[in-house]
Amino acid sequence: MYKSIVIAAALFNDGETTRAALAKAGGLLDAGGTVTLVHVIDEVPGYVAASIPKTHISARVADVQNQLDSIAAEGKGMTVKTVVREGQPAASILGAAKEANADLIMIASHKPGLSDYFIGSTAARIVRHAPISVLVTR
Q: Is the pLDDT of residue 122 over 50?
Protein backbone atom coordinates (compact mmCIF):
# COMPACT_ATOMS: atom_id res chain seq x y z
CA MET A 1 0.00 0.00 0.00
CA TYR A 2 2.73 2.50 0.95
CA LYS A 3 6.31 2.79 -0.28
CA SER A 4 7.58 5.14 2.42
CA ILE A 5 6.10 5.56 5.90
CA VAL A 6 7.28 8.09 8.47
CA ILE A 7 6.50 7.30 12.10
CA ALA A 8 6.61 10.10 14.66
CA ALA A 9 8.51 8.22 17.35
CA ALA A 10 7.45 8.81 20.93
CA LEU A 11 9.90 7.53 23.51
CA PHE A 12 8.15 8.62 26.71
CA ASN A 13 6.63 5.19 27.42
CA ASP A 14 9.76 3.14 26.74
CA GLY A 15 8.88 3.32 23.06
CA GLU A 16 5.82 1.04 23.31
CA THR A 17 3.72 3.41 21.20
CA THR A 18 6.44 3.53 18.56
CA ARG A 19 6.86 -0.25 18.62
CA ALA A 20 3.11 -0.67 18.07
CA ALA A 21 3.21 1.80 15.17
CA LEU A 22 6.18 -0.03 13.64
CA ALA A 23 4.32 -3.34 13.84
CA LYS A 24 1.26 -1.76 12.21
CA ALA A 25 3.47 -0.20 9.51
CA GLY A 26 4.73 -3.68 8.64
CA GLY A 27 1.25 -4.56 7.43
CA LEU A 28 0.89 -1.36 5.41
CA LEU A 29 4.31 -1.27 3.75
CA ASP A 30 4.88 -2.40 0.19
CA ALA A 31 7.60 -4.96 -0.43
CA GLY A 32 10.87 -3.07 -0.63
CA GLY A 33 9.38 -0.05 1.12
CA THR A 34 11.00 1.99 3.87
CA VAL A 35 9.93 3.08 7.33
CA THR A 36 11.56 6.14 8.89
CA LEU A 37 11.35 6.65 12.64
CA VAL A 38 11.55 10.36 13.48
CA HIS A 39 12.01 11.72 16.99
CA VAL A 40 12.10 15.45 17.59
CA ILE A 41 13.80 16.95 20.61
CA ASP A 42 12.08 20.23 21.46
CA GLU A 43 14.07 23.39 21.03
CA VAL A 44 15.54 24.73 24.23
CA PRO A 45 15.13 28.50 24.56
CA GLY A 46 18.43 30.38 24.18
CA TYR A 47 18.42 31.71 27.72
CA VAL A 48 18.14 28.14 29.04
CA ALA A 49 20.52 26.59 26.51
CA ALA A 50 23.28 28.94 27.67
CA SER A 51 23.29 27.27 31.09
CA ILE A 52 23.14 23.66 29.83
CA PRO A 53 26.49 22.02 29.09
CA LYS A 54 26.85 21.05 25.42
CA THR A 55 27.88 17.57 26.52
CA HIS A 56 24.45 17.15 28.15
CA ILE A 57 22.67 18.03 24.92
CA SER A 58 24.83 15.76 22.78
CA ALA A 59 24.41 12.96 25.33
CA ARG A 60 20.62 13.36 25.06
CA VAL A 61 20.76 13.15 21.26
CA ALA A 62 22.96 10.02 21.49
CA ASP A 63 20.55 8.43 23.99
CA VAL A 64 17.57 9.10 21.72
CA GLN A 65 19.49 7.72 18.72
CA ASN A 66 20.30 4.52 20.65
CA GLN A 67 16.65 4.08 21.64
CA LEU A 68 15.50 4.58 18.04
CA ASP A 69 18.12 2.16 16.72
CA SER A 70 16.93 -0.45 19.23
CA ILE A 71 13.32 -0.06 18.11
CA ALA A 72 14.34 -0.05 14.43
CA ALA A 73 16.10 -3.39 14.91
CA GLU A 74 12.73 -4.89 15.85
CA GLY A 75 11.35 -4.15 12.39
CA LYS A 76 12.05 -7.61 11.04
CA GLY A 77 11.90 -7.82 7.27
CA MET A 78 11.58 -4.04 6.89
CA THR A 79 14.07 -1.37 5.98
CA VAL A 80 13.90 1.00 8.96
CA LYS A 81 15.81 4.27 9.09
CA THR A 82 16.07 6.61 12.07
CA VAL A 83 16.18 10.39 12.25
CA VAL A 84 16.72 12.57 15.33
CA ARG A 85 15.95 16.26 14.93
CA GLU A 86 15.87 19.28 17.18
CA GLY A 87 13.16 21.87 16.70
CA GLN A 88 9.44 22.31 16.56
CA PRO A 89 7.90 18.80 16.45
CA ALA A 90 5.18 19.18 13.79
CA ALA A 91 7.36 21.14 11.36
CA SER A 92 10.29 18.77 11.88
CA ILE A 93 8.15 15.67 11.29
CA LEU A 94 6.63 17.19 8.16
CA GLY A 95 10.13 18.10 6.94
CA ALA A 96 11.37 14.57 7.54
CA ALA A 97 8.37 13.18 5.66
CA LYS A 98 9.15 15.41 2.68
CA GLU A 99 12.82 14.37 2.72
CA ALA A 100 11.84 10.67 2.89
CA ASN A 101 9.35 11.16 0.05
CA ALA A 102 6.81 9.57 2.37
CA ASP A 103 3.29 8.69 1.33
CA LEU A 104 2.05 8.12 4.91
CA ILE A 105 2.77 9.67 8.30
CA MET A 106 1.87 7.70 11.41
CA ILE A 107 1.52 9.52 14.72
CA ALA A 108 0.07 8.62 18.09
CA SER A 109 -2.24 10.95 19.93
CA HIS A 110 -2.88 11.10 23.64
CA LYS A 111 -6.34 11.23 25.13
CA PRO A 112 -7.53 14.78 24.66
CA GLY A 113 -8.02 17.46 27.24
CA LEU A 114 -10.02 20.64 26.82
CA SER A 115 -7.19 22.47 25.05
CA ASP A 116 -6.87 19.82 22.34
CA TYR A 117 -10.26 18.18 22.39
CA PHE A 118 -10.00 15.88 19.39
CA ILE A 119 -6.33 14.98 19.06
CA GLY A 120 -3.02 16.18 20.48
CA SER A 121 -1.64 19.49 19.33
CA THR A 122 1.32 18.03 17.38
CA ALA A 123 -0.91 15.43 15.73
CA ALA A 124 -3.47 18.12 14.93
CA ARG A 125 -0.85 20.33 13.27
CA ILE A 126 0.42 17.42 11.20
CA VAL A 127 -3.10 16.45 10.11
CA ARG A 128 -3.84 20.07 9.12
CA HIS A 129 -0.63 20.67 7.18
CA ALA A 130 0.42 17.31 5.74
CA PRO A 131 0.12 16.99 1.96
CA ILE A 132 -0.05 13.19 2.37
CA SER A 133 -2.16 10.71 4.33
CA VAL A 134 -1.86 10.70 8.12
CA LEU A 135 -2.77 7.77 10.35
CA VAL A 136 -3.46 8.87 13.94
CA THR A 137 -3.46 6.08 16.50
CA ARG A 138 -4.36 5.87 20.18
A: yes
Indicate whether 88 belongs to any domain: no
At 137, which amino acid appears? Answer: T
The tally of CA atoms less than 13 A away on the side-chain side of residue 125 is 11
* Region of 50 on the Ramachandran plot (φ > 0 left; ψ -120 to 50 alpha; else beta): alpha
Is pLDDT larger for residue 5 or for residue 52?
Answer: 5
- Does residue 29 fall inside a structural domain? yes
Full residue range of the structural domain in which residue 69 is found: 24-33+42-81
- pLDDT digits over 67-117, tens only? 999 999 999 899 999 999 999 999 999 999 999 999 999 998 866 554 445
**Beta strands, E only, 1-115:** 2-8, 29-41, 79-86, 104-108
Establish if 69 belongs to a structural domain. yes
**Structural domain total, the chain:** 1
